Request: fold
Amino acid sequence: MLLGALSMCSGGLIHGPLGPVPLIYAKGLAPATLAYAKYAPAAPVYPDAVPNYSFGYSVSDAHTGDAKSQHESRHGDVVKGSYSLVEPDGTTRTVQYTADAQNGFNAVVDRHPAAVHPASHPVPVKIAYALPPVAHAPLLQPHYTPFHG
Reply:
């Protein structure tokens, strides 16, 4: 393996699978311990391409009560979308949003029905509990016999 790597060396380059790659020496290590990085060609850039997508999903789990959905679309630098979810208090929060280079991100949040929060100092409620009858074994009196040794 090492001989194969050394035999591929020529003039500070290793001929890797994607062409010549410069040698990388780790500080303090002998030149025989070589490492090389794989250089991949850069992804092509298409300046005239306009980003364009649309997606959506929804979840409705009757077992856990989880319910949510989202939809978003983009054309160029303009993104529009909405999502909704059921909050722990039972209300549904819906968010409508837009984003673009000129106005930034803007969102409108709506909740249905309006959240009802309990008073900050609720009145305590007394709860009476009835315990079931329990049958006890008869209590045994300890019997001591003095030891005469």
Summary: Residues 1-11 have pLDDT under 50 and may be disordered. Residues 2-35 form one domain.
